[in-house]
Design brief:
Elements lengths: L1 H11 L4 H32 L8 H19 L10 H18 L4 H19 L8 H10 L15 H8 L4 H5 L14 H12 L10 E6 L2 H11 L11 E8 L11 H19 L2 E7 L4 H11 L5 E11 L27
Antiparallel strand pairs: 1-2, 2-4, 3-4
Bound molecules: flavin mononucleotide.
Protein name: Nitroreductase
Pfam families: Nitroreductase
Family: Belongs to the nitroreductase family.
Length: about 350
């Protein structure tokens, strides 16, 4: 609201003169840079997302994943409607055929899609609904598909008890005892522990099961230093960082205007689970912001060998926690201040 007032004062001529001068100065100084960065973000998004061209392999695989997942979701509803999903089935089959024509017959994502089609067919056949949409194409695709050794798609039945057994040993303390740690012991961090944390990160909810998140582990001390020099937020503890993680998302998983920011959601959730995965292994971590311009991001890409479609979500410093460590108190707001119960939307 205050910003709106400032902006309307500037446009409409309200407010006192020194204040308007200050605003004009800030506008002239910052707005062009903000605009330039938006334009660069915009052109990168158009270049690498599937908005203009869904044909490159990764863009096509993302489409296949999103589409098979729509069918998978439909199959997991309490009572899937018989004959549902004609448009998704048609789009999925076309995209799968296109991928196979351009890039070859097999890919793990195609195996998942095949299993979804098989589950769809079985569901309808078991309910005496033989004339389900795209039946011929589905049967043709399944006849040509290699048999998967392990389940790659479809649905699975989960017992509540299984979930409760997994939840029971975890208390709120697990979350309350995660701190951003900025002092680490000399002990070497085992890459296997980070890989275990990556498995946890990969279980994060993610849009239509498109898996855009990735972790780049920097183990070389000189490269850690160079990357932290670019990041500039680890002053005073950079030398103690044992491994430095660069969390990225692949822009090729997204398309159209509505998804322009989706990578930041998926990447943020991926990073949070990664941090809990590290915490579970007893490792200390500290997120390090990547609130940077496109040219700073390009410098980091060149330094650690990222691809142009990789967007950097954040860096994470990792190390073993010393016997005692001082952490900032990092007070939180009263939960009631950030929680609103809406009982009757008309009031
Ligand atoms: C995206 C993100 C970027 C951050 N960047 C930095 C950073 O550059 N340097 C730093 O020391 N801490 C950084 N932090 C850590 C925060 O300061 C910290 O999470 C916050 O104060 C809450 O403290 P806690 O994590 O111990 O609960 C960052 C946290 C997040 C989520």
């Amino acid at each position: 609201m205050q910003m709106q007032n400032s902006f309307s004062n500037l446009i409409l001529g309200g407010g006192d003169v020194p204040k308007r001068r200050r605003l004009l100065y800030r506008l002239a100084k910052s707005a062009p840079q903000v605009l330039v960065e938006y334009v660069k973000d915009f052109s990168r998004y158009l270049k690498f997302s599937g908005t203009l061209d869904g044909t490159p392999a990764e863009n096509l695989l993302a489409r296949i994943t999103a589409t098979y997942h729509n069918i998978e979701k439909g199959l997991s509803l309490p009572q899937p409607r018989l004959g549902f999903g004609k448009e998704n089935l048609t789009n999925l089959i076309l995209a799968m055929q296109k991928y196979q024509r351009l890039y070859g017959p097999t890919h793990p994502i195609l195996s998942s899609a095949h299993e979804v089609l098989a589950t769809y067919a079985r569901y309808h056949e078991s309910r005496n609904y033989p004339d389900y949409p795209c039946k011929q194409e589905i049967q043709k695709m399944l006849a040509a598909a290699p048999q998967a050794d392990v389940q790659m798609g479809g649905t699975r039945l989960v017992q509540r008890e299984t979930i409760m057994n997994a939840v029971a040993p975890v208390s709120e303390e697990f979350f309350m005892q995660r701190h951003s740690v900025r002092a680490f012991s000399d002990r070497e961090v085992d890459i296997a522990d980070i890989e275990a944390a990556v498995r946890v990160a990969q279980k994060s909810p993610v849009v239509c099961n498109r898996q855009s998140g990735a972790v780049h582990i920097i183990a070389d001390p000189e490269l850690i230093k160079a990357a932290l020099d670019l990041q500039m937020g680890a002053r005073g503890f950079s030398q103690a960082v044992n491994k430095l993680l660069v969390v990225t998302v692949d822009l090729r998983n997204f398309w159209q205007a509505g998804e322009r920011n989706q990578g930041w959601m998926d990447g943020g959730m991926f990073a949070m689970s990664l941090i809990y995965g590290l915490h579970l292994r007893g490792l200390g971590s500290c997120c390090l912001n990547w609130s940077k311009t496109n040219s700073q991001t390009q410098a980091m890409r060149e330094l650690v060998g990222l691809q142009p479609w990789d967007s950097i979500i954040m860096l994470i410093a990792v190390g073993h926690i010393p016997e005692e460590v001082v952490v900032p108190f990092s007070s939180r707001k009263d939960p009631l201040l950030v929680t609103r119960v809406i009982k009757n939307w008309k009031k």
